[in-house]
Amino acid sequence: MSSTNRAFRMKQMQSPRLFSDHPLKTLPDERTTTVFNQSRKMESQSSYDNAIENRLYHIEQLAESLKSNTSIEQTRIMSSLQEIAKTLKSISKTEIELNQKNKQLDHVTMESVMQKQTIQKLKDQQNHYKVDNEGYLKQLSLSQQDQHKLCRDLLQQKKVVEEQYKKIKFLEKRIEMMLEKNLYSHSEELRNTLSELIRDNEQLKRDLVKKEKENERLKDLNSKLLQQNNRLTKKLDSLKTKKVGVKETITENQQISNYAFNPNSLPSNLEFRLNDLDNDDCDFLLDLIEHGPEVFTNQVVTLDSIQQKKDLINLVASQFISARDFSEKINQIMNEFITMISYKSIQDFQIHVSKAFRSIFGTEIVHLWIIDGMTCRAQTYDCNGVQHVALLTDGVFSQLVFEDYGIRSPSKKQELLYITENNEVFGKNFLLLPIMGNSFKPCGILEIQNIQENLFLDSQYYGLLINMLSKSVVQSILDFEALIKELNYRDLFYRCFNRLIQCKDKEHFCTALQESAMQIFQIAQTKLLFIENNQFWIQGRIYQLQAGCAYQIYLKGKPQIFTQITRQDHFDENTDISSILPVFIAPIYLNEQIKAILQFILKKKQMIDKHPFGNQANIGFRLDTIDQDAQKFYEIVQNAFQIVFR
After folding, report:
1. Who has the most CB within 10 Å: 240, 325, 373, 578?
2. What's CA 424's distance to the chain center, in Å?
3. Residue 335 pLDDT greater than 60, yes or no
4. Are 56 and 89 in contact (CB under 8 A)?
5. Residue 536 β-bridge partners
6. Helical H runs in 24-182?
7. 3-state secondary structure string, 237-276?
8. Chain centroid, CA 287 distance in Å
9. Euclidean distance between CA atoms 124 and 131, whole angstroms
10. pLDDT at 254 over 50
């Protein structure tokens, strides 16, 4: 046994040491240490695990070497070594589990620290909002006090004005009473009194004018304070309803609702350009406009955060650049219309619109459509002078003309705009503005396609401006064309008079009368009944004088319009014109005697054709002036008759 123990000791001395001379130390529980300490702890733990594994390995080798010996002492040593190995395995397993628990505990500790920091930030932000809320409440109370003060001043001014009016009326009544009475004996006193009253009256009038100006100034100041009060109220409501840490979302419907402008007028101000900004930025710019640059400079200087200073300066700089681009495009639009206002043709105007305004909208499709009510079509010309025709039977164009009467909002999907004779035309991100004429229906459409969404509000304003100016240009072109038609129509009367005075006899005069009536009224039925020897002479035929409605005009000696001449009791088909249309019958005088009877048909036409939105002007065929045209034609025929047959 001693030799065996000696051999075991020798082998133990030759083999590496299984156990350390120092006792085992567990790692300290560092739950609140930094990440660097945690990494060192993990490295020490891994080295400790490696040492245990090495010791287990040497114990197993020693156990294998002692298997061949079967002595009792060796068997005990083997069992002891196995128990030590099991104990070391359980110790290593326990250490691993302990390390995992420590890691979980450290993770939970870090999360709790982050939550505490987040809670502290939210508390600080909540305190900041409370301070802002108190400041806005103070401003709101001050503005309300100023408003009440202005209302009281306004009421006082109204009372003073009413008193001044009463004094003026009283003085005027006194002056009237003095002027009505015959007080010549006190003329000098009355003159002095009257002059004093006049001076007082003039002074009161001057005071009244001053009070009215002061009243207007107070009204303007009151309106500004009301706007400021409304803005502060909205800001206060937004602060009350605003949730900390929740970002405000805007739906697509809310965005589209801000696009609605009145297509018949420009907006009263340009504050719509601030709609795309955040509420804080919008309020800041409104404060800058209201208080001026000095307040802005002082506010920026007093800020502690450099990032906030950069944000404010970037905001003002970006708005300056945007306003500069906006004003330059408006200036470009006005310069273009200074050129286009001299156009006398709608076709040339449409071509210029397609060319000139593409750069303003950043698109290739800008068309000015003119609606033809006679055919229910719209036509335009592109920048190359090619004509395009749209049928107003389906699509957005049809809705705009017959139903909507408003501005179409942009759409991300393709929509049917209009149809042609051969195909259908679709578009997206478009803007359509109706050009309203004198009627309640549009006479034209301004089409703009492929608009950038971030510039839609500005593009809509440009379109409205072009729409209003286009309406004026189109109206001037139509007025010019109407004037040309009116002059041509008047020229027909002059040519009629020249043709009639060149006639030599009755037959030639009747033929020229038929041709003139056909050119002026587009009628072929015209009669001129000559009176000779108490008989009617019509193109070589003789009839009794007492026949027909012509004889009734001969007896009356005045012109008359017969709406249904065939139903008249005195109608005679030989001497009278037979027609369902109105017939104008008038006597022709020569040397104060009736020498002929003129008859012609009145063909009624309106100046504007009967369609919902037409622009077809036919000057000279107005219902309200058809009697005047007939009277003018009658006077021309009578003057020519007197020249030819005198």
Report:
1. 373
2. 27
3. yes
4. yes
5. 531, 543
6. 35-65, 72-180
7. HHHHHCCCCCCCCCCHHHHHHCCCCCCCCCCCCCHHHHCC
8. 25
9. 11
10. no
Mean pLDDT calculated for residue range 297-314: 82
pLDDT > 80? residue 283? no
Q: What is the average pLDDT value for the chain, to the nearest integer?
A: 76
Indicate yes or no: pTM above 0.70: no
CA distance 500 to 637: 8
Question: Rounded to the nearest 5°, which phi and psi values hold at 561?
Answer: -105, 125
Map residue 412 onto helix, strand or coil: coil
Give the CA count within 13 Å in the CB-facing half-sphere of 553: 27
Residue in the structure block whose two tokens are 């009967």 = 610
How much is the pLDDT for 79? 81
Exposure b/e, 374-413, CB count within 10 A at least 16 = b: eebbbbbbbbeeeeeebbbeebbbbebbeeeeebbbbeee
CA-derived radius of gyration, the chain: 51
* Short-list 423, 379, 422, CA closest to 397: 379
Pair 363, 456: CB distance under 8 Å: no
Contacts by residues 238-244 (CB-CB < 8 Å, ≥ 24 positions apart): 238/279, 239/129, 239/132, 239/133, 239/136, 240/133, 242/129, 244/122, 244/125, 244/126, 244/129
363 touches 354 (CB < 8 A): no
Q: How far apart are CA 327 and CA 333, in angstroms?
A: 10
Q: In the prediction, which pLDDT does 275 show?
A: 67
Mean pLDDT for the stretch of residues 285-298: 77
Region 160-169: mean pLDDT is 84
Question: What is the Cα–Cα distance from 488 to 548, expressed in whole angstroms?
Answer: 36
The answer to whether 45 touches 84, Cβ cutoff 8 Å, is: no
Nearest to 62 by CA among 24, 16, 23, 93: 16
The answer to whether 387 and 394 have CB atoms below 8 angstroms apart is no
216-242: average pLDDT? 74
The label of the residue with tokens 């090619």 reads 386
- Tallying the residues shown for the chain, one arrives at 646
Torsion of CA 242, 245, 246, 247, to 10 degrees: 100
Closest residue by Cα to residue 489 from 341, 609, 605? 605
Task: Label residue 116 exposed, middle or buried (CB < 10 Å: 0-12, 13-18, 19+).
Answer: exposed
How far apart, in whole angstroms, are the C-alpha atoms of residue 117 and residue 120?
Answer: 5
Q: And the tokens for 540?
A: 């070589």
- Residue 376's closest CA among 389, 392, 363? 392
- Does the structure show a pLDDT above 50 at 12? no
Which of 202-211, 240-249, 287-296, 590-599 comes out lowest in average pLDDT? 240-249
Burial of 581 (0-12, 13-18, 19+ CB in 10 A): middle
Predicted pLDDT of residue 170: 81
Helix, strand, coil proportions of the chain in percent (round to 5)? 60, 10, 25
Average pLDDT over residues 277-281: 72
**Residue 587: its pLDDT value, please?**
93
**Which of the two residues, 576 and 252, has the higher pLDDT score?**
576
CA distance 211 to 602: 63
Q: In what order do the strands lie in the sheet with 377-381?
A: 424-427, 415-419, 387-391, 377-381, 366-372, 442-448, 431-436
SS3 state of residue 314? helix
HSE, CB side, 13 Å, CA atoms: give it for residue 555.
9
Single-letter code of the amino acid located at 596: A
